[in-house]
């Protein structure tokens, strides 16, 4: 028997899906949770083969519950079953440690099939989820602008944030004023800003300076 914990804050959903799953000869729903907090407690108590996890629940959402379960039980197999297909839900859920991702529009027999395949070691993703992941992989990730700065330029940016003039920076770093001006020009260009104030604001926003 494949033991299952079903966490969902909609009672009718739990009743309907659990009834179908329990009618299967190889699946046994041993516990139900109506929020993330209960899901974590019951998962660690019963150690079911599969955890069906809703994302949006009271007390604690499915993403946080998944993280807490995986932190304490790294071998847990969690299937997200949700109505959400937004990027801000899909990626955090998978990064948290979810094994599979299903939509609530899936038929009960499809969920049962996903339980069996996940139990067998496969990762089941809805076609829409797979498409989103592939598109994200194809999209080149832009390198943050400030990573182009050299160590000297970061040092000068720090002094700029303290309100120091080019002359004061020159004297403090023992470099020529002309060299300071070149560095400042490079900083503005690499950060794609027009003046010193914008450069300092960028630095604050990206935690480059305190």
Automatic annotation (TrEMBL):
It is found in: Cytoplasm. Pfam families: GerE, Response_reg. The keyword Transcription regulation applies. Its main location: cytoplasm. Residues 3-119 form the Response regulatory domain. The keyword Glycoprotein does not apply. SUPFAM superfamilies: C-terminal effector domain of the bipartite response regulators, CheY-like. One of its GO terms (biological process) is phosphorelay signal transduction system. Residues 142-207 form the HTH luxR-type domain. GO terms for cellular component: cytoplasm. The modification 4-aspartylphosphate is found at residue 54. InterPro entries: CheY-like_superfamily (IPR011006), NreC/VraR/RcsB-like_REC (IPR058245), Sig_transdc_resp-reg_C-effctor (IPR016032), Sig_transdc_resp-reg_receiver (IPR001789), Tscrpt_reg_LuxR_C (IPR000792), WalR-like (IPR039420). One of its GO terms (molecular function) is DNA binding. It comes from the Bacteria. Keywords: DNA-binding, Phosphoprotein, Transcription, Transcription regulation. This is DNA-binding response regulator. It comes from Halobacillus andaensis.
């Amino acid at each position: 028997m494949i033991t299952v914990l079903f966490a969902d804050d909609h009672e009718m959903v739990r009743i309907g899906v659990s009834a179908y799953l329990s009618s299967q000869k190889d699946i046994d729903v041993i516990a139900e949770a109506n929020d993330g907090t209960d899901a974590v407690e019951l998962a660690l108590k019963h150690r079911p083969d599969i955890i069906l996890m809703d994302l949006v629940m009271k007390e604690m959402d499915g993403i946080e519950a998944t993280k807490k379960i995986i932190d304490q039980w790294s071998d847990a197999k969690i299937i997200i079953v949700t109505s959400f297909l937004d990027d801000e839900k899909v990626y955090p859920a998978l990064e948290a440690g979810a094994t599979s991702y299903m939509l609530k529009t899936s038929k009960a027999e499809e969920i049962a099939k996903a339980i069996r395949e996940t139990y067998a070691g496969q990762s089941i993703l809805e076609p829409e989820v797979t498409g989103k992941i592939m598109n994200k992989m194809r999209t080149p990730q832009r390198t943050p602008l400030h990573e182009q700065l050299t160590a000297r330029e970061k040092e000068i940016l720090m002094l700029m944030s303290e309100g120091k003039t080019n002359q004061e920076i020159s004297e403090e770093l023992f470099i020529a004023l002309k060299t300071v001006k070149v560095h400042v020009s490079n900083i503005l260009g690499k950060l794609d800003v027009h003046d010193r104030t914008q450069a300092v604001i960028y630095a604050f926003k990206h935690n480059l300076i305190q």
